[in-house]
């Protein structure tokens, strides 16, 4: 089917069906786009995002009976 024939067929559709055709065309274009390359993670990317308390390794009071 040539472009002109396809355009004529779409032109003969009611407005609500033209909207569906437009949605389908957008879906097909999106489906066949080249995949975006995932950015490679780099070491230390979260540095400075959280802080550990200085007494992190100290024993907890709650477990004193078990030590």
Outline the structure in words.
With about 70 residues, this protein is mainly α. The protein has a domain at about 1-30. Helices cover about 40% and strands about 0% of the residues. The mean pLDDT is about 90.
Topology, element by element:
Layout (H helix, E strand, L loop, with lengths): L2 H9 L3 H17 L36
In short:
With 67 residues, this protein is mainly alpha-helical. The protein is 39% helix and 0% strand.
Shape: rod-shaped
Estimate percent helicity: 25-40%
- Helix/strand/pairing category: mainly alpha
Please mark out the parts with pLDDT under 50 across 5 or more consecutive residues, or reply none: none
The number of helices is: 2
**What's the story with the biggest beta sheet?**
none
Instruction: Summarize model confidence as the mean pLDDT.
Output: 88
Q: What series of H and E elements makes up the topology?
A: HH
| Proportion of residues in extended strands | under 5%
The multimeric state of the shown protein is: single chain
The number of strands is 0
Radius of gyration: 30 Å
Distance between the termini: 81 Å
């Amino acid at each position: 089917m040539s472009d002109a024939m396809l355009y004529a067929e779409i032109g003969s559709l009611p407005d609500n069906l033209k909207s569906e055709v437009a949605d389908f065309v957008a879906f097909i274009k999106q489906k066949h786009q080249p995949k975006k390359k995932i950015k490679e993670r780099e070491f230390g990317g979260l540095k400075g995002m959280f802080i550990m308390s200085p007494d992190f390794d100290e024993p907890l009071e709650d477990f004193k009976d078990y030590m």
